[in-house]
Protein 1
Amino acid sequence: MKSTRLIAFSLFSGLVVLSANVTAQVKKCTDKNGKVTYTQAVCPQATAKDKTIMAYTPVSNAAPAAGRDLYAENQAFNQRQAQRNRIEAVQNSNREAIAAFEKAVNRPLAPGEVRRTTLTIK
């Protein structure tokens, strides 16, 4: 079983290397005794089965389809990342302001002292 797969893989690998103008097929032929052979031609009539297991048809010479615009995608990513960084900086600043406010509010007052604490959120 492993040798059959190895042969099939080897044949397929060979087909991939072929030039773009070549079309190839691999046929699996099983004779009356159950012996399996692989060929690129039509199986002999003495075989019990004729099955195409691989076919290779080259890609056409037509112009390739328009690809992704990686520059534009990269620019959009950089803009989103910069926005995330700005938001994160504001959030960190707000957390620090809230922590300072809570610290000031929770500080005990001296007798006669008036609390004047403001909180500025961005």
Protein 2
Amino acid sequence: MRFIRLIMLVIVALFASGEVAFAQKTKRKKPVKKVAVISVVTVGDSELSRPDGEITTPPDSASSPAMARETDANIWNEYSDTKFGFSVTFPARSEDVIKLDYDGLQNYSASTETAKYYVIAREDGFPLEGKELKAFYDNLVKSVFESGKSKISSERDVYLNGVLGKEISYEQASLGEPNVMRINWLRVFLIAGKQLVLTVSVKKSAYTADFDKYVDKFFDSLKATNELPIVEAKPKPKGLNGTVKNGVYRNDFFGFTLKTPESWQIANADEQLYAKEASKTVMQNSNATNNAMVEKNVDNANFLLMMTKEPLGIPENTSFVIGAEPYAYQNDEREIAKISMKSLIDKYNKSAVVKQAKVVRDVFETKIGGKSLTGFEIEAQVQNSKLRQRLYILKQKGYLISFIAGYSKESDSTEIDKILKTIVFNAKK
């Protein structure tokens, strides 16, 4: 969803005057690696929800060198991780904490005779705040409910460094032992570009009310810095970006084609970079952490196609951009569109460049290229002109594909319609 915001802001940059948007052509920077966002990273007894939807179970922490008790002397020790910038107190020696890596998702675990303790860390991307952050946590709770295997006992808001988090407790059958019920506690934060999730799991038959103090001890020990995580990303799938040849954009990875208007300009890699740099003006603010994350993620934004009616730098330029981001949330396209629309209106109205943003057409469904896509339209004042933006989204192959257009004239709206009519999904070579 945050990538949708980025594309919309890039279109603002394309629309703004050449003097403002493209006065400085910056040199290409070495990309900072990025990995996909995940929503619910722990569900029940040591399960990890990966971006591709697979459930991976780490080896049981019972393989630790020694099975301790929470009451053992000197058993609670601080464990620090510089990669993700956090520390937490485990009921284990630091060297006995098991660390596993799943394509950039880090799992840290330790076990006692009674319970299992986990920390899961992953890079998150653009910061969430306000309604978007609340929607993330609501989705987490929803996913536990909808699994059909869990019963939520409690949920509450928690805070770390002033950042909102969520804590829930729930009962669930033990993984591999359907007749054994476990009580699980989960606390999650999105902070400084990272997801931090703490989980404690104990067999219901072994639980006593006295055990709650150990859950609190583990959860409350979490400390996190405001430094961005240092994470390496896996390579992009082959053919993800697609190609343009003989007036046709073809993407075999997602299985669709689109005809590019003969007179339109297809942005090359350097021109896409200039547009990204210009978008930072709209996205950055007085918050240093936010600006560092903007810098990082704009540099790594993945555009499949960017084209404009006029050369870059021409004021009030009509544009059409296709982007894709890895996406593992359980929200359907309509929910994604609603959250994105509300977030964009809020962001625009707080921006120094974009003003008077409003919804022109609320969330709707439409057929494009033989598939059902979800969209919305908004309008805003950019400098002295009105910019209309149209968004269409579709979830496919673990990605969220976005088709976004920006224009001001009604005649250009007709041209956008013509472009959309050329899209064909499941196109044959």
